[in-house]
Write a structure and sequence with these properties.
CATH architecture of the largest domain in chain B: Alpha-Beta Complex
Structural class of chain B: alpha/beta
Protein name (chain A): Mannose-1-phosphate guanyltransferase alpha-A
Structural class of chain A: alpha/beta
Largest interface: A-B, 17 and 18 residues
Number of helices of chain A: 10
Number of helices of chain B: 7
Oligomer: heterodimer
InterPro entries (chain A): GMPPB_C, Mannose-1P_guanyltransferase, NTP_transferase_dom, Nucleotide-diphossugar_trans
Helix content of chain B: 10-25%
CATH topology of the largest domain in chain B: Spore Coat Polysaccharide Biosynthesis Protein SpsA, Chain A
Strand order of the largest sheet of chain B: 5-4-1-6-11-8-12
Radius of gyration of chain A: 22 Å
Shape of chain A: globular
Pathway (chain B): Nucleotide-sugar biosynthesis; GDP-alpha-D-mannose biosynthesis; GDP-alpha-D-mannose from alpha-D-mannose 1-phosphate (GTP route): step 1/1
Largest sheet of chain A: 7 strands, mixed
Family (chain A): Belongs to the transferase hexapeptide repeat family.
Strand content of chain A: 25-35%
Strand content of chain B: 25-35%
Distance between the termini of chain B: 45 Å
CATH superfamily of the largest domain in chain B: Spore Coat Polysaccharide Biosynthesis Protein SpsA, Chain A
CATH topology of the largest domain in chain A: Spore Coat Polysaccharide Biosynthesis Protein SpsA, Chain A
Enzyme class (chain B): transferase
Chain lengths: 425, 360
């Protein structure tokens, strides 16, 4: 029996996702029409013998999360429960704290997945690899290739090419170590708890306020981090292996990254859920490329959508509207003749007619193989806002005939004019 | 009577439009700029018109030959081989202008207004001196040549060119009427009429100012061209507005050539001029623009304060604003944004111009 665990973090994590995470926990943000962790759970459901998913995080119980849990339980027939950490415990602290729950029923192994990554998770392939390479007490990390330059932003894995053993691991090194990066997705055997227990003990004894860990994050002695404490020790013990994938994978740190993830998840639908992709037809809007339209949305037949567009529940799209490479979230209205490009229109917002809402994509450089999304600063060295995806927060009113370019608009704002390269509070 | 129109050179301030046509032939309010002036002159009894040009334009000569016949007036070209300034061209045309005792008109070709030629002739005869300058009131006088004169008699005291501090808000409107004797004051060399001729005429009480009623604009550059268009359309409305267009989706003062086609669910106006053979597709919003002959604007686009050149193709969901000017035969692809762009003729635009720029 296999279990699935998703680390969903809490409100203090994922702040770069604002303004979208101001009203909805980031793991529930819809990408390609479904919450981010829906895609994780769906991947779990494809693993035979996986019947139980645990969500671990430090969000307060909230209606959205409960509702989500109920829905995925019904859809995938999996047992899904949320375990709330009493405080932020780091990427491994929660696993240690809830070890009894995790090990209940003697699972053969359990997947651990970070909520803030998106991808075509090859969980079955990882399981097969795990069973082949190990003997019941080994652990497998999912890795992928990045450019040398970008690898410095991730956890770097040095692998033995023959045995696929991880011989060295370092988190965000200052200089180049390896192009293989940690995807934040793991398959642990119950043996891992030994290492978590040892780390926990060590922290209890050695915790001091001057340590690097405590200056980096508001941690306590109950915090344990997989990346900086567990993997480094596990490397070269013959117990940690890496399974490399070339499937789509991306971190989703900023709102703009969801546009990139949206595109790739929609592309995956061709294989997994072709019925979810909108089709052209009589009396229907013009569809170009991959588009997801929620069944309850109302789109005028003279509108043109796509490629790479997701239209949420109860959205209304007026005559002659053009939407491309964008997300239109639940309850929004786009009035006639408007153009939405590389943007996210937040829940229940209204965009007037003949307006232009436009952002700039931060796609990985197509000329560099394995390039990942750039994680750039909000402002450039001259103090100007870096052009990025335009994000319209929830309940925003955008008037007619204006242009909103490369801007971020916080929720519940009534705009009165055009804006370019601005953060509108 | 006779008139001299100072056409001048290449009309560089109105580029990119003047790269394809000589400035007098650029259509303002669906009529070549020059024709507004010539028709008004003919109506006031002018039978002979001289165009002072500093470059030969075949297109101009051809077109004016046609007008000669239509209006029954003689049009001659006075060609400056070297630049003669603002007064020199008068000396060059001395033979025609001074051929008899009748006063002659002189006008700047960029001026659009409610031409008061009959009033000018009357006013000039009344005071009996050598020269009359038409003046108009403006909001920002320091951009122009300011005229200081006695409010009752109109006798001019002095001129101040682009004053730093406020002197008066009446400026030289670029319309004059002179008695032929003033030609003696001008030599055939580069001469500035404002700096070298007028001050002397004013000094010996030979220069008078007549205030212009109604609108006035120097439409020599795109921003002023559009402002002038708004004023012109307003004056058409005030005179009865029967030339103006009315219909579904038309707001305010709009001039539409009968051969133009406008689609459904559009919003045209206020202050829009649509030229012959223009096609406007469905769902287009146009405000404060001039669209020249043969242009096509495709669906759902939004244009504000622009000049769309002849035979241009503007795609769907395009947004253009902030005095963007498209030269002749420019193609703008779907979903492009142009903000204050000046696009040279025959160009194809496939990337947005979010900040004012000249695209060659």
């Amino acid at each position: 029996m296999i279990k699935g665990i998703i680390l969903i973090g809490g409100p203090m994590k994922g702040t770069r996702f604002r303004p979208l995470s101001l009203e909805l926990p980031k793991p529930l943000f819809p990408v390609a029409g479904f919450p981010m962790i829906y895609h994780h759970i769906e991947a779990c459901s494809k693993v035979p013998d996986l019947k139980e998913v645990l969500l671990i995080g430090f969000y307060q119980p909230n209606a959205a999360l409960n509702h989500f849990i109920m829905e995925v339980h019904q859809e995938f027939k999996l047992q899904v429960r949320y375990f709330q950490e009493y405080q932020a415990l780091g990427t491994a602290g929660g696993l240690y704290h809830f070890r009894d729950q995790i090990l209940a029923g003697n699972p053969e192994a359990f997947f651990v997945m970070n909520a803030d990554v998106c991808g075509d998770f090859p969980l079955n392939e990882m399981l097969e690899f795990h069973r082949k390479t190990g003997n019941g007490d080994t652990h497998t990390m999912l890795g992928t290739e990045a450019t040398q330059q970008q690898s410095l932003n991730y956890g770097c894995i040095v692998e033995n090419k023959d045995t696929h053993e991880v011989v060295h691991y370092v988190e965000k090194p200052g200089s180049y170590v390896s192009s293989i990066i940690n995807c934040g997705t793991y398959l642990f055997s119950p043996d891992i708890m030994k290492y978590l227990a040892a780390a926990f003990q060590k922290n209890q004894e050695n915790f001091c306020t001057d340590s690097i860990e405590s200056s980096l994050s508001p941690s306590t002695k109950e915090c344990i981090f997989l990346e900086s404490e567990i993997f480094m020790d596990l490397a070269s013990t013959g117990k940690l292996f890496v399974y490399q994938t070339t499937n789509f994978w991306s971190q989703v740190k900023s709102a703009g990254a969801t546009i990139y993830a949206n595109r790739h998840y929609l592309a995956i639908y061709h294989r997994t859920h072709p019925d979810r992709l909108a089709k052209n037809g009589e009396g229907k809007p013009t569809i170009i490329g991959d588009v997801y339209i929620h069944p309850s949305a109302s789109v005028h037949e003279s509108a043109t959508l796509g490629p790479n567009v997701t239209v949420g529940k109860n959205v209304v799209i007026g005559e002659g509207v053009r939407v491309r490479e964008s997300l239109v979230l639940e309850g929004s209205t786009i009035l006639d003749h408007t153009l939405i490009l590389y943007s996210i229109i937040g829940w229940n917002s209204v965009v007037g007619s003949w307006s232009r809402v436009e952002g700039t994509p931060n796609d990985p450089n197509p000329n560099k193989p394995f390039a990942k999304l750039e994680v750039s600063d909000l402002f450039n060295s001259e103090g100007k806002l870096n052009p990025s995806i335009t994000v319209i927060g929830s309940n925003v009113q955008i008037p007619s005939e204006v242009v909103i370019l490369n801007s971020l608009v916080l929720p519940h704002k009534d705009l009165g004019r055009s804006y370019k390269n601005q953060i509108i509070l | 009577m006779k008139a001299l129109i100072l056409v001048g050179g290449y009309g560089t301030r109105l580029r990119p439009l003047t790269l394809s046509r000589p400035k007098p032939l650029v259509e303002f309010g669906n009529k070549p700029m020059m024709l507004h002036q010539i028709e008004a002159l003919v109506e006031a009894g002018v039978t002979q018109i001289v165009l002072a040009v500093s470059y030969r334009a075949e297109l101009l000569e051809q077109e004016l030959k046609v007008q000669e016949e239509k209006l029954g007036v003689t049009i001659t070209f006075s060609y400056e081989e070297e630049p003669l300034g603002t007064a020199g061209p008068l000396a060059l045309a001395r033979e025609i202008l001074g051929s008899n005792d009748e006063p002659f008109f002189v006008l700047n070709s960029d001026v659009i207004c409610d031409f008061p030629f009959k009033d000018m002739a009357r006013f000039h005869k009344n005071h009996g001196r050598e020269g009359t300058i038409v003046v108009t009131k403006v909001e920002e006088p320091s951009k122009y040549g300011v005229v200081v004169y006695h409010p009752e008699s109109g006798k001019i005291d002095s001129f101040v060119e682009k004053p730093q501090e406020f002197v008066s808000n009446k400026i030289n409107a670029g319309l004059y009427i002179f008695s032929p004797s003033m030609l003696n004051r001008i030599q055939l060399r580069p001469t500035s009429i404002e700096k070298e001729v007028f001050p002397h005429m004013a000094a010996d009480s030979n220069l008078y100012a007549m205030e212009l009623q109604g609108f006035w604009m120097d439409v020599g550059q795109p921003k002023d061209f559009l402002t002038g268009m708004c004023l012109y359309l307003t004056s058409l409305k005030q005179k009865g507005g029967h030339l103006l267009h009315h219909g579904d989706g038309v707001l305010g003062n709009v001039l539409v050539d009968p051969s133009a086609k406008i689609g459904r669910n559009c919003r045209i106006g206020p202050n829009v001029t649509i030229g012959p053979d223009v096609v406007i597709e469905d769902g287009v919003c146009i405000k404060r623009c001039t669209v020249l002959k043969g242009a096509v604007i495709k669906s759902h686009s939004w244009l504000n304060s622009c000049i769309i050149g002849w035979r241009c193709h503007v795609g769907r969901w395009v947004r253009m604003e902030n005095v963007s000017v498209l030269g002749e035969d420019v193609t703008v692809k779907d979903e492009i944004y142009i903000n204050g762009g000046r696009i040279l003729p025959h160009k194809s635009i496939s990337e947005s111009v979010p900040d004012p720029q000249i695209i060659m």
